[in-house]
Amino acid sequence: MSLPHPSSAPDGGRPSGRESAQPVRRGDPSAAPRAGRDAGAPSVPGGRGPSVPRKSFPVPGRPGDLPPAHTTLICVALPGLVISTEEGQLNGRGLEGFYMAGRRILSRCQVRVAGREPLVMQARMLAADRARFVGTLRASPDAGPDPDLVVERTRHADGTELITLRSSAPRALRLPVEAALGTDLAELGDVASGRAGPELPASVHAAGLRWSCPTGYVTVTADPPPTDALASAGLLRWELELPPGGTVTVELRVRPDGQGPIRAVGSGSASPFAEARVLSDRPGVEALLRTCVGDLRALLLRDPRHPADTHLAAGAPWRCGLAPAEALAAARMTLPLGTRLAAGTLRTLARTQLAGPGPRSGLIPGPLRDSGPHLPPGCTATEATLLFPVLLAEARRWGLAEREVEELLPAADRCLDWLRTTVGDSTYMPDPQPGGPLRCETQAHAHRAALLGADLLDAHGRTGGTALRQWAWALRTAFRDDFWVEDRAGGRPAGARTPDGRLVPQLGSSAAHLLDTGLLGSGELAPGLLDKARTEQLARLLGGPAMDSGWGLRSLGAKEAAYNPFGHRSGAVRVQETAVAVTGLASAGYEKEAGALLRGVLAAADSFGSRLPEMYAGEQRTRGSAPLPHPAASRPAATSAAAGVSLLTSLAGIRPDAPAGTVTLRPFRAAPLGEIALTGLRISGAPFSVRVSRLGLAMVEEADDGLQLGM
Fold first, then answer.
1. Is the pLDDT at 34 greater than 90, yes or no?
2. 81, 102, 218, 407: most buried by Cβ count inside 10 Å?
C-alpha cells in the first residue's frame, strides 16, 4: 500500500481507513476529508497483485450501507484476505471471496459432489489465516439415513483451498466432483458499495482457468489437474475414486498475475512479536493471547520502499491500510512482545512527517474521526503526532536499542516542536479546526507527550525539556478546575470546553485517557491531570453501571443524552479504551474497578471465540446473556488484538527501565484471574517471564542476567 500522502488538508492528511468516508485529492488544499463514522471506508492492504490504483476507495454515502460482516469468517494474512460465510460455499454474494492487495481475485467457488452440495455441519476458524468447513453427503445409494462421505474444505488467506473427501462407505466410490469458479476482479470498495460489476469471462489455462481485465489477470490451478475444464461456465471437473475408508484431496490455488505463493508479512521469523504464552487459573486466557498475537501477525504490513519496516493495518475487512494513530497505539500496547514493531512503525510514520516552515511542520498526517453526537469530528493527526514521542520514550524503557532511539529522536523532537508551536502562549492544546472545542482527551495526550518527551530529550542531552515540563505543570494546574463539572454526585471530568468557556458534560470512555499517564524512569509513572480526589471520583464513575456494561467500558454513559448501545462513539464498547481504563485504574490503585472491566472483556472474548472485535454493543450484561456484535466492526482489529495483550500483561504490572537495567513489578494485588504466569515476553530483546500468585505476589522467573529487580 502507498503510504499516507502529506497534504494541506486541515486535518493534516488524506483519509485512512474508516475514520473518513470521502476520498481526498492529493495536494489539493481545499479537499479536507469529511469525517464519517468509524465504520467508514475500506482501505487497501499493501503487497503484490493485479495493478491496484494507489487511491482511496469510493464508498457508500452512509456507513450503514456497508454489508454486515459480523457473521462472516475473515481469514487474514496481509496482503491476502478471504471472507466466507458459514455456508462454506463462495457464492459471489456480498463480500465473499479471496482478496489480494485490496482486489477480489476470486468471488465464487462452489463445490458439488455427485451433483449435490455438501450439507455444512461446522464452520470455524483454525487460525487468523485459515478456516475449515466440514460437510457431509450420502454417497452410497444403500447407505441408509447416515452420511458416508465427509467433505472438508480448508481455506487459507494466501489464496489456497484444500478440498478433502473422506469416505466411510464399505465399498469403493467413483464420484464426479466439480468446482464452479468466477471472479469480477473488483476492488474491495466497489464490492462493499455494490458496484462490483458482472463476472468476467474465463479461458482455459494450464491445469485450470484464467480471467483477464485491463489491470491484470488471475489464474486458478488445480492439483491434481481437472479431468475437464469448461471455460464458458467457469467449471473444473474431476472423476475421483475413493477406496473403502479412503481419502482424496484436491488443491485449488488462485494467484494474481501468474505469481507464486505470496508470503504473508507476519509469517515465520519475519514476525516482530515474541512467542509469548500465558498460563492462568481462568480457562480461555491462553487461547486469548494466542489469538491476539495471531491476529497481530496477520495484520502486519511492510513499507513498500523500506521492506524491513513493518506496521499494523487498522483491521479487516474494512481497514486493511495504515491508520497512523491506531498503528502507534497498537505498537505501544504490544511493547511487552518486543520493540521491533514500535521501531518499524515509528520509522514508517517519520517518513510521512510534514517538513518545512510553517505551523504544521512536524505534524504526522491523519484523517478526521467522528467523535460522537456531542462533539465535532476530531483529528487523528494531532493524536498521532502526540503519540509518536510517547511510543519512542516507552520503547526505550522496554529496551529499544540506543542507536535506533538516536535515529528516531529528530522526528520525535519535531513532534514536540509542533506541540510547542501549536500551543504557543496558551495553557491548553487547541483543536485544529478553527473555533473547535478544547478536548479533554487531547489535553491528556498533550500532557503525556510533554512529560515523556521532556524525559527523552533530557536523556539525550537535548534542550527543550524544561519548557515542556513547565507547560505541563501549568496545564495540570488549570485543567483540574477548568475541566471539572460539579454536581451533587461528586462531579465528573468534562468531555470538552468550548471557546466561550462552556463545558460539555457528557461522560464517555475517552475520559479513561486521563488515567493513562505514561512510563518514566525507575518504574515511575508520570503525574496525571487529575488530583487524587478527582481520580478517585473518575474511578468510581468508570466502574459504575452507567459506564461498565459488564462486557467492558461504554463509549458513552448509558444515562447520557443520545446514548445508543450500538453507537461506535455513543455507547458501544470499544476494546482499546477499555484496556486503557484497566491499565490506568490499576496503576492508580483502583483494582476493584479495573478487575471488573478486565473480567468483562475476557467474558466477551469467550463469546467471540477469543477474537476480539474492535467494538461491540454496550447492552447491559445479564445472567446467561452474550455480547451483541456490531455489524460494521473490524475483526480482527489491530487495537483490540493489542488490547488483549495489554490487558493480560497489565496483571503483572511490568515497568521496565532498560537504560538503568531495572524492572519494577506492580501486580494486581487482588489477582482477579487467580494465579497467572507470563512467559516469553521481551525486555531489551531478552526473554522475560513472570508469575503472579493467587495472593498477588509477583516473581520473576526468567530475565536477562544484567536486569535487576527494582523497588
1. no
2. 218
